[in-house]
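Q&A log
Question type: sequence-to-structure
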Amino acid sequence: MHENSSLVSVILPTYNSARFLQESVGSILSQTYHPYEIIVVNDGSTDNTKEVLQPFMPRIKYLPFEQNKGLPKARNIGIQSARGAYIAFIDADDLWFPEKLQTDIEYFTQHPDTGMLYSKHLNIDEKGAVFDGTTKNRLPSGNIFLQLFSEQNFIISSSVVARKEVFETTGLFDEQFVNCQDWDMWLRIAFSFKVAGINKPLVKYRHNPHSLSKNRENVLKYQRQVIDKTYAAFKDATGGISEKLYHKRLALHYAKAGRYYVRIGNKRLAHENFRMALKYDPFNLRTVRYYFRLW
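Response status: OK
Response body:
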């Protein structure tokens, strides 16, 4: 039995993703780093998930739900079941490069003040083919809380490894969030801990047209909830969010929603969202131009 001080608990929630599991679990088993445990949480799948996982059962801890309870609940059960000093996340349709955990744990060893790591990624389509996608030239590191709040969530969940003790401070994933619960969690971690970005791809991130993140209206709804929750939690804290920054962030959110509704041809909702964006940032010229084009 390995000492838990070096053990990584890999949490893989899955819901009706059987077609990807053999490859995703295989990418974990191909890691150059040891020791690790794999915790697969079957979130009430109705496909052949259990059958696909059967050859891996001696190598994994299998936690099945009878009914679908949602991604944050599945991740929380994984964290609560974990024995390791580090918690790593991977979604059922994503893949790791073999050196991923080795790279992460070496960084943690060299930087004991870092609470969480994430990395660059390659984008792949449903069939696994790599395609171009934008990514930051250098990933933000250090005290990234305000930047992570001000921008869109730039942290890919399948790239994240955190010290387990971090969750004693932040708490677990918010189970009220059907979407964007990862952004909410990374924000809470980033407020209290240093976060480091590894500037090389360690993950293949699959763009699955059936994933929850492809429902743009749902994403926009929960993004607004995360913005409000984060402001409420940290507005009075040292290093927290000012009312001015909160209003600027709301303006960016509504402007993004407005552009989405322009793309899908919903003029009424586009107009409504641009009007709200201008309420919070009346001098944003890009939003002004969009707003008056709709008349």
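Response note: The two ends are 69 Å apart (CA to CA).
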